[in-house]
Specification:
The complex is a heterodimer of chains A (about 170) and B (about 290). Chain A has about 170 residues and is an all-alpha fold. Chain A contains 7 helices and no strands. In chain B, the strands form 2 sheets. In chain B, strands 1-2-5-4-3-12 form a 6-stranded antiparallel beta barrel. In chain B, strands 6-7-8-11-10-9 form a 6-stranded antiparallel beta barrel. Classes of the chains: A mainly alpha (about 170), B alpha+beta (about 290).
C-alpha cells in the first residue's frame, strides 16, 4: 500500500512538473489551457477509499494552485472530480463492483475508457473555468474554454495512457 | 436508556457511512475560502508569503527565459533610443526658441521618479490576470502606484511584499483606469473584457465627441497614480455603448503583455498642491 502511494506521489510530481512547465504555457486562441493534472485522479483504481481519493484530489489541486497563482480554483475542482470519479468509473465500466481493477484501455476498452476520461475532464474543466469566470457575463467564452480544454486534456490523457502502456 | 444508546449508535454509523461527504464539504469549503480571499485581491498574508517564495522561483526561470527574447527586446530598445534622440533634438530646438524670447516659465515641473523592475511572472488568459515584478516595499514600492513600460501604461500596483509586488494590469476585468483622447481631450474609463490581451475598451466617451480612428488614448492625470499624457493605446473601432448614451471605443493596447519584461513603477508622482486643496474642500464640506 505504501509502495502504491509512493508511485502515486511520483506520478503527481511528474504531472505537476509537466503541467506547470508546459501545459500552463499553452493558451490556444487565448482560452484553451488543458489541465493534465486531472489524469492523476483518472488513474485511481476502484478499491481506493473515497476519503483517501478526496485527500489525493485536494492535494493535487492545492499543489497546482500553489505554483499557478490560482488560489483554490484547482483544489475545489480536483476535489469535485475526486468525489465523482468512483461514480463515473462505475458508470462506464462493465466490471462487477466487487472486482478490483484499474481504469485503462486494456481493462475498459478504447471507447469506454475514452468516454470515462472525457466525462472526468469535463467535470474538472467545468468547475475550474466556472470558478475562474465567476460570472455569466461572458458565458460563450467560458464554454469555449471548457469545451476546448476538455477535448485537449482528454486527448493528452489518452496519449499518456498509450505511452505508459507501451513502456510497460 | 437502551433506546438512546441505539440512536447514538445509529448516528455514529450514519457519520461513518457518509464520512466522505463531510470530508468533501470540508475540503470544498477550504478551497473556496482560499479562492474568495484571493479574489478580494490577495488580502491574506499567506499569498504574500507564497508569492515571495514562488517569486524567487520565477526569478530564476525568468533569468533564463529572458535570453530567448533578447532580440526583440533589443529591437524595442533601439526604437526607444531613436524616439528619445528625436525628442531631445525637438526639445533642444524648443528651448532655443524659449530662451531667445526671454519668456519666464512659471509652470512647476512635474515631480515624479521611477523605479525600474522586471516582470517575473504574468498571467494573461484569465479573468483576473496579475503580473509579479521583482521590486517590493524595500525599493519604495507601495500599492496604488502606476506601472508603465516603454510603450505605455501597464497597470497599477495592488499588493507588495518586501521583494516583490503584484500589479493589476490593464488586462484584468476589475481594472479601471481613467483615460482621455489625445486630440479631442474627451475622457472616459478603460475596462477590459476577457479574451484578447491586446484589446481593451474605453467607456463613457460622450456621443458628441469626434473620435478619429487611430487616435491615441492616454492617461488624463485625474488620479494621483499616473501623470497626464502617458500613452495607453489607440482607437481601433467606435461602437455604441449598451445603453446607447455614449460611445464604446475598442482600444488597441500599446504595451505588449505577451512579451513584457522591463517595466517602471512611478514611485512619487504626487500633486501636493492639488491634494491639499482637495482636502481643504473636503473639510469645508464636512463642516
Amino acid at each position: 500500500m505504501n509502495q502504491l502511494n509512493l508511485i502515486r506521489a511520483g506520478r503527481l510530481v511528474l504531472l505537476l512538473a509537466l503541467q506547470i512547465s508546459i501545459f500552463n504555457q499553452i493558451h490556444i486562441g487565448g482560452y484553451v489551457t488543458p489541465l493534465l493534472i486531472g489524469y492523476m485522479l483518472v488513474c485511481f483504481q476502484n478499491d481506493v477509499s473515497r476519503t483517501g481519493l478526496l485527500v489525493w484530489g485536494f492535494l493535487t489541486g492545492f499543489l497546482f494552485d500553489m505554483f499557478s497563482n490560482t488560489a483554490g480554483m484547482a483544489s475545489a475542482s480536483c476535489t469535485l472530480l475526486a468525489m465523482m470519479q468512483p461514480k463515473l468509473l462505475k458508470l462506464f465500466s462493465t466490471f462487477d463492483p466487487n472486482e478490483i481493477f484499474a481504469p485503462n484501455i486494456q481493462s475498459m476498452g478504447l471507447w469506454r475508457y475514452l468516454t470515462y476520461v472525457f466525462f472526468c475532464m469535463l467535470v474538472l474543466h467545468t468547475a475550474f473555468y466556472a470558478l475562474d469566470a465567476f460570472t455569466l457575463q461572458n458565458w460563450p467564452l467560458t464554454l469555449i474554454a471548457i469545451g476546448g480544454s476538455t477535448a485537449m486534456a482528454t486527448l493528452l490523457c489518452l496519449f499518456s495512457e498509450m505511452f505508459v502502456r507501451r513502456r510497460k | 436508556m437502551w433506546g438512546r444508546t441505539d440512536r447514538m449508535w445509529s448516528l455514529t454509523e450514519f457519520f461513518l457511512k457518509h464520512k466522505h461527504w463531510f470530508v468533501f464539504l470540508l475540503l470544498e469549503v477550504v478551497s473556496l475560502l482560499g479562492l474568495f480571499s484571493y479574489d478580494g485581491y490577495q488580502k491574506s498574508v499567506y499569498f504574500t508569503t507564497a508569492n515571495g517564495i514562488v517569486g524567487n522561483i520565477y526569478s530564476a526561470v525568468s533569468s533564463v527565459t529572458s535570453y530567448l527574447t533578447l532580440t526583440s527586446t533589443n529591437r524595442e530598445l533601439e526604437a526607444d533610443n531613436e524616439r528619445m534622440r528625436q525628442e531631445i533634438i525637438h526639445l533642444k530646438a524648443k528651448l532655443k526658441v524659449a530662451n531667445a524670447d526671454s519668456i519666464v516659465n512659471h509652470g512647476l515641473p512635474r515631480h515624479y521618479s521611477v523605479v525600474s523592475a522586471q516582470v517575473v511572472n504574468a498571467t494573461l488568459h484569465r479573468s483576473n490576470n496579475l503580473i509579479t515584478i521583482n521590486r517590493g516595499t524595500k525599493d519604495g514600492i507601495r500599492p496604488e502606484m502606476g506601472v508603465v513600460c516603454s510603450r505605455g501604461v501597464v497597470g497599477v500596483v495592488c499588493l507588495c511584499s518586501t521583494n516583490y509586488s503584484i500589479v493589476l494590469p490593464l488586462v484584468n476585468t476589475t481594472s479601471r483606469i481613467s483615460c482621455r483622447l489625445r486630440h479631442s481631450e474627451y475622457f472616459g474609463t478603460l475596462q477590459w473584457k476577457r479574451g484578447q490581451s491586446d484589446i481593451t475598451y474605453a467607456t463613457g466617451i460622450p456621443r458628441h465627441a469626434k473620435v478619429r480612428m487611430g487616435e491615441v488614448v492616454e492617461t488624463n492625470g485625474y488620479s494621483d497614480i499616473f501623470p497626464p499624457g502617458i500613452p495607453i493605446g489607440f482607437v481601433k473601432r467606435v461602437e455604441d455603448s449598451a445603453d446607447g448614451m455614449s460611445y464604446l471605443l475598442k482600444v488597441g493596447i500599446f504595451a505588449n503583455f505577451e512579451n513584457l519584461r522591463e517595466v517602471s513603477v512611478i514611485t512619487d508622482y504626487t500633486q501636493p498642491e492639488r491634494k491639499m486643496l482637495e482636502e481643504q474642500a473636503d473639510s469645508l464640506t464636512l463642516n
